[in-house]
Design a protein that fits this description.
The protein is an alpha/beta fold. The chain is built from 18 helices and 22 strands. α3 packs parallel to α4.
């Protein structure tokens, strides 16, 4: 992305939480920003990359991105790193030692929790990292606070020489609000990196001396939390129930109970125990509203503060007014409100792949192959587990398809002794955490066939660039990984490496069928780009000749959303078996001419569309 001229100081802008954080990072004089794409955090770095005077990069994974930010902070520069909640699982190795060394330049780590599971494999609560790593956690409740807390976090980080976690959730990341912005203030450290082996080289002896300093810092941070203006009290007038909340949960409480006393935790770790104790004494009942784990509730109860929380509120999902109001009504013995807003009924629309996605042919082919177990990974291709393919058996975490495939191979019992093991992984995921797993398969003699789906993009999060497509975050040319050479360097035999076009179904089917029969490691690389990036070139679209369509449904099994079933009909075959015929049409305006549906069409009813014909309306 090209740098743009930022809006001037004192402008009021409509910004999402991600955009607000990006603006604050730039204004704070940050010099280095790094991340790996992951919804709902992705837009933070995308927007940062459009600002001048700051280096931005897509790193190969979250651990590397944090280490880049750590290096810049060690050099005395301000740095920023962001990731989704599961990304910190990858980066935590660096975080857990960084807490001992501390930093010189301010380091802010934004972690985006996916409360409500909009696009993630779990709903873990990143506030745990503040406790685990002994670092402060800030929690904004809207875009303006995301902006202000980010700027404050840089100052706070430098004051206490500690990284600061900015804990966000999907609602903050993506919802827009008005934000009043300021000016960029340059930040330079004239001293640069100072050699200090006792601090920066974490041997057991060095770490042992730093641990007491970490505990002393904990005491200082606790005292700071007690007086911080980020932790504020709205006294309210209805003292039957008081609330302690943070982030979007605070917004939900204020909307649901505008007259109730509320203690807002903006600086939520370490918690201000004495401030909460004093607040609890002013209300009849204290309810802790937190998304999603009962962290604050557990700590308060351990400190002898009587409170309620997850015993009356759900332990998953957002705590919106339609959740809070019935729970508190029951607590007070009042009638449950009947006029609560409920989600509008929506026609069910299961997630599917894009029209002409290069993964469609892969899963159409896998669905035809029997007696295989398929371990999958994180990305668009996870959708292969769904209809109509049902061609994915496991998905756990980034890169896990490799290790799980080896485990399925080595751990197979009698019932699975003749089954073939196949792993499916995308290009960016392979570079993120899959390379080590493939090396492990090779090193330990696994009998696994790997399908490496190279679509030249981090597709699931919006088509971001990565080392596999030869462009950096700014769109500039960068070295491009040759996947065939890479997997060969990891020990896969050259004759077991195949690069195939996923749109050529006969070749794809034959290659997969042949390789799964060979009792050693094979890698099949598909090499067509994501249809949503500039590398993809559309072809002439197709249409269905109604009179020739026999309703066989073979094209439907491809799973392309441009193919619509217009009529279903049940017939009895000569064998006596009842089958359902599916007569189709192709949405020509959406079709990109990939040719996938043409290949399984036995009656040759699918032909190139005549784009000169007038539009014909079809009645349903």
């Amino acid at each position: 992305m090209a740098a743009v001229m930022p809006a001037p100081s004192q402008s009021r802008l409509l910004l999402s939480g991600n955009e607000a954080v990006a603006r604050a990072v730039w204004e704070s004089g940050c010099k280095v920003a790094a991340a790996y794409p992951g919804t709902p955090s992705t837009e933070m770095l995308e927007v940062i990359s459009t600002y001048p005077d700051i280096y931005s990069e897509w790193s190969v994974n979250e651990k590397v991105s944090l280490e880049v930010a750590i290096g810049a902070a060690f050099a005395g520069s301000r740095s920023f790193c962001c990731m989704k909640h599961v990304g910190m699982n990858v980066a935590s190795d660096a975080l857990m030692t960084l807490t001992l060394t501390g930093v010189i330049g301010g380091l802010v780590i934004a972690i985006a929790d996916d409360v409500g599971l909009s696009s993630s494999q779990n709903e873990q609560d990143s506030r745990f990292w503040g406790r685990f790593a002994h670092v402060p956690v800030f929690e904004p409740a809207d875009s303006q606070e995301a902006y202000e807390m980010t700027k404050l976090a840089f100052d706070f980080s430098e004051k206490f020489q500690v990284p600061v976690i900015l804990r966000m959730t999907t609602r903050i990341n993506h919802v827009k609000g008005l934000v009043t912005v300021g000016e960029r203030v340059a930040h330079e450290n004239a001293d640069g990196f100072r050699k200090e082996p006792a601090r920066w080289v974490m041997t057991p002896a060095g770490a042992g001396k730093r641990i007491p300093l970490m505990f002393e810092r904990d005491k200082t941070l606790r005292a700071e939390a007690e007086t911080s203006p980020l932790n504020s009290v709205d006294s309210g007038t209805d003292r039957r129930v008081g609330f302690v909340a943070s982030g979007p949960a605070w917004m939900h409480v204020k909307e649901s109970f505008p007259d109730a006393p509320v203690l807002k935790l903006g600086f939520s770790c370490p918690i201000p125990l004495e401030k909460i104790r004093a607040f609890a004494a002013t209300v009849e009942k204290l309810v802790i509203v937190e998304e999603v784990e009962p962290l604050v509730e557990t700590e308060l109860k351990a400190a002898g503060i009587d409170c309620l929380g997850k015993d009356i509120l759900p332990r998953q999902g957002e705590l919106a007014p339609n959740v809070l109001k019935p729970a508190i009504a029951k607590l007070l013995g009042e009638p449950v409100p009947e006029n609560l807003a409920k989600p509008a009924p929506v026609f069910p629309r299961p997630p599917t792949m894009c029209v002409a996605c290069p993964h469609l042919g892969v899963y159409y082919t896998l669905a035809q192959i029997k007696n295989i177990t398929i371990s999958g990974d994180i990305g668009c291709y996870t959708l292969g587990a769904g209809h109509p393919w049902n061609a994915l058996d496991t998905t756990i975490s980034m890169g896990a398809s490799m290790g799980i495939a080896l485990g399925l191979d080595k751990g197979r019992g009698t019932a699975d002794k003749d089954k073939r093991i196949l792993a499916v992984i995308g290009d960016s995921t392979f570079l993120h955490m899959g390379m080590q797993g493939l090396l492990d398969i090779v090193y330990n003699g696994g009998n696994v066939t790997v399908l490496l789906l190279d679509n030249r993009a981090v597709g699931m999060t919006g088509g971001q660039d990565n080392p596999g497509n030869g462009r950096d975050i700014y769109g500039n040319p960068a070295p491009r990984v040759d996947f065939a050479k890479l997997v060969e360097s990891l020990g896969v035999k050259k004759e077991r490496i195949h690069v195939v076009d996923p749109y050529v179904l006969p070749k794809l089917f034959k290659t997969i069928r042949d390789e799964i029969k060979i009792p050693e490691v094979s890698v099949i690389i598909t090499d067509q780009p994501c249809v949503l990036i500039d590398d993809y070139k559309k072809q002439k679209p197709y249409e269905v000749i109604d009179d020739k369509c026999t309703g066989c449904g073979n094209c439907v099994d491809v799973g392309c959303p441009a193919i619509h079933v217009t009529r279903r009909e049940k017939v009895i075959k000569p064998s006596g078996k009842e089958v359902e015929l599916q007569f189709v049409k192709i949405e020509t305006s959406a079709c990109t001419g990939c040719n996938l549906c043409v290949q399984p069409c036995a009656p040759e009813a699918i032909v190139h569309a005549d784009l000169t014909k007038p539009i014909r309306l079809v009645k349903h």
